[in-house]
User: What shape does this take?
Amino acid sequence: MDRCRDRKDSVKSPTSEGGKSSHSHVILMRGSVSLESMTVNNPSVSVFLPALAGGGAERAMLHLAQGFADRGLKTDLVLAEAEGDYLKQVPANVRLVNLKSKFPVVLSKTRALRLHLQREQPTVLFSALDIVSSALWAKWSARVPTRVVMCIQTYLSGQFQEHQPHTMGRLRPQLVRWLYPKSDDLVAASQGTAEDLAQITSLPIE
Assistant: This one.
């Protein structure tokens, strides 16, 4: 996988030239900052999730956090609520941060994440299962230089159809279309999810 381009208007797909999954390259940062230089510059990373329920997206992000920590990066796994089947699998070298979100959850977790960003100021914040872009709202309100990488692990169009009868369900596609392109990077888990996101946002696939 080529290094992420210094642009905001693209969706990265984790498929290498040989067609093999290459997640270690997908997590390279945009522009001239690579994973190797991150280690040299002593950065920190936060991985943000609603919880650690037993789903594929949660498992993938947990592995991502572990991969950063194993490379010597200070890594926080930030959960809106510290619950779920994978809690016992959080490795010792990853710090678990429980935001203890309350109702209304969206506002509560965004405010708590803002405080985390102000306090820790991680180099990069990776966020998944974040349709309303709490990561972006938290960064903007915290006024920190943290780079936000939105990780798309599922077919968003399918989620929208499932929630379409509800008011929030009707707003979700608009939120993704408006907010996701404002992140520092967009990383999709597969070619299919990349194409799905590209269709929603009208962004090209890198």
